[in-house]
Amino acid sequence: MSRCDFRAPRLYLDAPIEEGASIALDASQANYLGNVLRLKHARLDYMVQKAVEMGASRLQPILTRHAQVARVNLERMRANAIEAAEQCGIMTLPEIRAPLTLERLIAEFDPHRLLVFCDEEAEVNDPVAVLSQARDARGGRPMALAVLIGPEGGFAADEHAALLELPNAVRLALGPRLLRADTAAVAALALLGAVLGDWR
Q: How many CB atoms lie within 10 A of CB 200?
């Protein structure tokens, strides 16, 4: 898959593109550029709800260089967590923590916790096999886990390198397609639930 700059806004155009030409946007495209890209609250709401439904015990926003969100509304996250728990009969809410920079997360990371680092650059054909190896290396015992989903703009090169230096990090590609952050979170949690979690 060719690499492109995923930090730049992208629009589908059903018109020929010529250098120097002006292309009129329809109302939905203008709304997307003017409002959706600036807010992105719905995606975070979705991630919180699905993480709660799938058994996450802690939600920790991480601020990276290419993050699309500069501020995180913790009360809104909590409200979404409560709503998901109520609808699914979940009796324990996850801990919702204030945002951390990636640098601080790396500096304070518990070396006994397994970090599943979703990395679209990982050369992994079988994510189930990778997680199974991590499970087998610990004798099949339950383990503390953390899942890190990157920003839609991707990790900066130095951030990526620092994550790879963590002793208990497992790089995990989620397949041949590039996923949005909210989709990647659900896919990663489903894989972990099936291979390392309480779905077994």
A: 9
Alpha helices per DSSP H over 92-180: 102-108, 127-137, 157-164
pLDDT digits (tens, 9 = 90+) for 79-128: 999 999 999 999 999 999 999 999 999 999 998 899 999 988 888 778 89
Write the burial class of residue 17 (CB in 10 Å: 0-12 exposed, 13-18 middle, 19+ buried).
exposed
Determine if residue 89 is left, alpha or beta; phi over 0 gives left, psi from -120 to 50 gives alpha, anything else beta.
left
* Token pair listed for 171: 């790089």
Distance (Å, whole) CA 36 – CA 109 = 33
Which comes out higher in pLDDT, residue 9 or 195? 195
Domains and CATH numbers, the chain: 27-195 (3.40.1280.10)
3-state percent breakdown (helix, strand, coil) of the chain, nearest 5? 40, 10, 50
- 70-73's contacts with Cβ under 8 Å and 24+ in sequence apart are 72/44, 72/98, 72/99, 73/41
- Could you report the per-residue pLDDT of 14-54, keeping only the tens digit for each? 777 788 777 777 888 777 666 655 547 788 899 999 999 99
Cα gap 178→176, rounded to integer Å: 7
Q: Measured between alpha carbons, how far is residue 67 from residues 64, 70, 90, 144, 165 in Å?
A: 5, 7, 30, 26, 21
**Mean pLDDT within 68-85:** 90
